[in-house]
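Hi W.,

Here's what went into the run:
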Amino acid sequence: MPATFDYIAKASPSGVAAFSFTNIPQTYTDLVLLISARVTSAYDITAMQANGNSSNYSAVYYEGSGNTVGTGTAEISFRMGYINGTNHPNMWNADIVHIFNYANANVYKTVISENRYPAVKGSTQAFQTQFKAGLWKNTAAITSLTIGTANGGSYASGSVYTLYGIRKA
Amino acid sequence: MPIIGTIASSYLQATGDFVSLASATGNGSSTSFLFSNIPQTYSHLQIRYWGKSTWAPGTISDVLTVRINEDTSQLYRVYSVYTGVGPSMNFSDTGTTQNKWGDNFLMLASNSPAYVGGVGVLDIYNYSSTTMKKSAKFVTADPADGYYNGNYWNLGFGSAQWNSNSAITQLRFMANGAFTSDSYVALYGIRT
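Here's what came out:
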């Protein structure tokens, strides 16, 4: 049996606001997305849509700067963590996103995102640690993920999104 | 590997540094999964799950509790931060009288609404050590509760301790109701 944490694909967006992973294999149990990114604007937020669908997402989140808690309903995407930008020169956010049971056509899809949004030392801008969970109220198997910036900012060169598959025994 | 009342895989020969050791899938009647004879050749364990039970309390979610080596002594403790109705942020310390990891730990959906499940990732460090107390961390979420409470649903993260130096050779996962057929608990070994 091969290793069960497999690399699927990598995207290196630069100068664009969105990109897609398509034809995602349906042979894994969970997907894991690792993110190291920046935008050329002040900051932005990672947003993700499954199968190009723009409805029936909801979320709950915790932001570690100020202990903010919030929820969202009827959203158009999974909204995940902040993306570093010009507010913090040469700082890159570090995220891991877990997508559970993604190929199961009997269940709604749930995502947990852990986001670190580091701040430059001495900056008055917040250093954020965020935990977010999102639900896509759709039973379709996830075959593609469109990922982009919620506020329309462009990715800076060097941004990397890497998609992995995890298969249970 | 005995998995009581579930459709489960056995331990498989594998190569690599992140290896699937075993998994259990619900069958609509079993309320417990037992992973026994856990190999002692890895550095850490990771458990990943999607879980829904048939428990029908009406307005609250189920919980996924964990017992180690079938030990029922009061050696378990969980520290967690979790969201609640409001929304609100809450902190919990279960104290020193717990006989399993349970309260404010891994979230599991109950029978309603349909299609939703609790999810989570639990990492247990140095599980095979016989000289170290065992520590774990987790993230978890459950969309179900939100349907009852104004679309607020739950997210939590935290740490857990089992105050024992014994190597972990068994893990039992329990729910108040039976695990549905879409539910799974998957055990992975991590080498360093």
